[in-house]
Amino acid sequence: MTSQGSYRAQLRLPRMAERPVLEALAAATSEAAIEATGTGWQLNHPFGLIALEPQPSDIQIRLDAEDRTSLAYLQLGISHRLQSLDKAIALDWESDNTPGMLLPYFREMKVVSAQNVTPGMKRVRLAGEDLKRFSHDGLHIRLLFPPENAAAPSWPRLGMNGEAVWTDDDNSPVARVYTIRAIDVERGFVDVDMVLHEGDACPGAGWAARAAPGDIVGMTGPGGGEPQKAHKLILLGDETALPAIGRILEGLPCETRAIVRVEIANAAEKQELATRADLDLEWLLRDGREPGTATLLPDAAKALPISGSDPDLFVWGRVRVRRIQGHSRACAQDVTVAERAAPRRFLLAAWRGRRALGAFTAHDNSKNAAMRPSRRSY
Fold this sequence. Notes:
Distance between the termini: 21 Å
Strand order of the largest sheet: 2-3-4-5-1-6
Shape: globular
Number of strands: 20
Structural class: alpha+beta
Strand content: 35-45%
């Protein structure tokens, strides 16, 4: 990240104590160090440069980013932190990202092909333009499924603070979170692996089952972060985590020890997972049990050699659990090893109940977690 980017925004705040503002910005940028300048302070963040300059009558915040997506993410994260100081604060951004424009982190994509990887997993190849920003700073995306026969989908627009503004009409899409399994920026496509759930409450699965060349879908992102570099990496999940696990494994160097435990429906759902890493892979078969009800992953997690004092260990996990008798959160904590004091982890639980609401909870104690786009923001 250069100190001066191509896209900029600035905000003037009423004069308030600089220290609370600095603390709010520092909390939003845990990986960035605050540096004093001749006119104030600055923070070099992976998304761009943040400068704070006290004036006689106000405080000016300036942002410089290399792309519109990073600028929007910076505006969004800083706005949230400032509003935590004062909910009534007026944020009047002057930005190269104009409110009302299509989201800078949105692309309209077209289906190129759709084929089964396993009986329960379909790989959909999507083509689009200007995909470079989707190749880093996040594994995850939202796919926006327009209503069937919608002539002109109502894609989300940019809000005042960098957030997505969604319309509520008959042409509004339904959004679900997925992982980019593979991306080719030069050729302009992404591959997305989609689990074929049953039921009307899973619009993405229904769309994937019907997907045909030429179909249109929206895509926003990236978000959700990426595992940090570590000599030992533990990956835990069910079939919904397999796209991310597969992509993570493909990018690991040979000196990494990767311990992987994956819960799947049956042996037919096993996939070839390519990696240069030293791989310890175990498939956990439900064999007829409903997703989110078995204890296979919690039991496997508890048996792993995890030490809270190991600085070279990173744990990543994702799992589905049903809301049954209040046990869902406890199950997720077991699976994600949140109670076992792994020193670095990115842990995710996808709650799946009668309505498959798709709500998410994350436990992330990795660096820069505070400014990472959440699943509700991109």
